[in-house]
């Protein structure tokens, strides 16, 4: 989230798209309800299915799964054509006026630089024009056809109401209401929040879906202000924390790129040259990176050995190490061992039949869990013959959250400490202790090794107390950072250095332990006198306790709030900065996302007082910004699509997605029905956490497919009938639940039905049912590789 949960109370309009927060993020509704009661806020819900969120919305706009870019592209077009965007904000705070390379082109669904064989773009023509000093060129009059705003105008011209609704299936009169409501929030005293989750991301165009929201919010001037922003409602309770800590393969902690095997990463100097920009706050990345290396390898990281840069694993950029790629590698027999640590891919992974089958190639599998999940039991799953599966399976019992302490980070980036409630049962241990012991044993094995490849383990700092259990406070101090000489905590990441004198495990979290050693994540002071509700003394938010990102943009060019209604920080020319004695300071209800003493008319180092987006090279919000699949979001159809042609262009599928299994594509002749998967309140994820709890199992005991009344009638299916749902990947048997929540779409002149399946069921636990993911494809987004769980094709027939 750029903003945070409580901040939802400050909104005038919530555009909820690709999420069902009333059921999956219920606390958000507490604050939306407040916004509604106290300021008359409105709610729009955009979803293929009428959910409990829709029931609470002022406008429910249905759309066919996989068409969000068309939906948002139409809003962008409406704002641009009718000049309804926030002009002052757009002209000054975004790259609208910047001139694009004359070589840039967009033709029939393809941007310039496409290589069809590699399914990849060369992005050089998506660059900006620059003067000889390297500064980008602009046309503040917005007349030049190559300026970003005009390129966007042209690009989205095709997204007229008729074409959009022909693709999305949204009724036109409803869509017009959406356009009007959204446009109202371009006013200086209004804000709209966009709340999204997996209905947005789990698509071959998932990342560009999010980009389209960012563009919309920048056009409306809704980024950086209370009640605004782009708010990813995150999933697992600590999924925010795990990405902050570098869970993904392409980043190390703090969103810093992992080195690659290519020549431009050959040594530390090359890495820094490639990764550290000269402008923007990222100019400090060398300090974060080297402090991270010091935290990892301590005294063994020296200037002479490039701070142990070569101990970091480097990844082959031609390959991919995300979920789908790993299971494809298992299927080929390239991966021999798997640690499934608090995850259950046999139920949660796409194309689940194939993923379970791929696991049969493993020599060993280690599952660290609360339960014996479907993954732990994959060798005895229905249809498998244990005699032919040679995988050795270990199941290590783990503590549940109540049985251990530690921090978890919520979607609003608040790092909150939780204390142990009860002692663990049986042999269960905290995950931290399990990995601590594993690390200790590995270090013991390698302690006398002189092989260079063992040095990263031999030299790893792993001193977290003397006991069996890992001293978690010591881990927290290492994460937050300290000066190497005296081990004293650093104030925050602004005190980190690139010369090896500081160590810091994760720069974004730096400052969580303050200079006196106090753990700020443990703060529980719920007093807040400000109108916005930032609660600065409750827990710790990254970065440096800031609650609204890019809050410099909540003030105008002169440093005054755009409106008192939406004030977060502002420039006070008379305030004195205690630390430096300087007169003039950013003050307000939040921690300024700016150098506090750099005024609106000043330039100070990488800061320019009129440019709020300090993490961007030009300090401006990126309306036009390169991603793998283009600098502007464009509508492409899902891998399985009911359409013969894409009404927007000759490109049906996102041109950069990797096709793993070309013969497993669903086509409308065999599979005419669009399907999606979703969650229910009563179950959690792959279901181990809820199908093993008797009362929850009883509340929601069976697997079903939700079908609209029209389709049920057409197929002769009644509520409660047993049916077979089939896709190009597999078939499952379950019950039919006939509801009014799915209604047919009129798409490009034909009727298209959509159905939905919960994905919580499996063959273990009290409540069992078939795995929805047997139906989903092994294909992912062009940037993130997140699987396309939300839009695929099926057919349905009565069982027997
Ligand atoms: N009770 C409960 N709460 C949970 C979870 C749980 O399992 N149970 N899981 C947690 C986790 S890990 C996560 S990631 C979040 C997920 O939170 P959500 O994203 O809210 O979860 P889903 O129910 O999977 O999907 C949300 C909605 O997306 C809609 N949708 C499908 N396709 C599209 C599309 O193409 N466009 C749009 N606009 N909408 C579409 C679906 O109809 C569905 O209503 O929930 C978290 N909260
Ligand atoms: N079709 C379809 N598939 C989906 C999705 C979808 O929307 N549709 N959503 C996707 C999403 S967003 C997600 S996040 C994934 C989730 O996929 P998974 O992460 O595989 O699913 P979970 O059931 O959340 O698995 C977490 C496991 O951790 C265990 N656990 C709980 N607490 C602890 C602990 O403290 N320590 C350890 N070691 N284990 C613990 C639980 O018992 C549980 O089995 O599924 C994805 N799969
Ligand atoms: Mo998730």
TrEMBL record:
Its main location: other. Residues 675-792 form the Molybdopterin dinucleotide-binding domain. It is an enzyme of class 1 (oxidoreductase). Its cofactor is [4Fe-4S] cluster. Keywords: 4Fe-4S, Iron, Iron-sulfur, Metal-binding, Oxidoreductase, Periplasm. GO terms for molecular function: 4 iron, 4 sulfur cluster binding; electron transfer activity; formate dehydrogenase (cytochrome-c-553) activity; formate dehydrogenase (NAD+) activity; molybdenum ion binding; molybdopterin cofactor binding. It is found in: Cell envelope. One of its GO terms (biological process) is anaerobic respiration. Its EC number is 1.7.99.4. Residues 2-441 form the Molybdopterin oxidoreductase domain. GO terms for cellular component: cell envelope. Belongs to the prokaryotic molybdopterin-containing oxidoreductase family. This is Formate dehydrogenase, alpha subunit. The lineage of its organism: Bacteria, Bacillati, Bacillota, Clostridia, Eubacteriales.
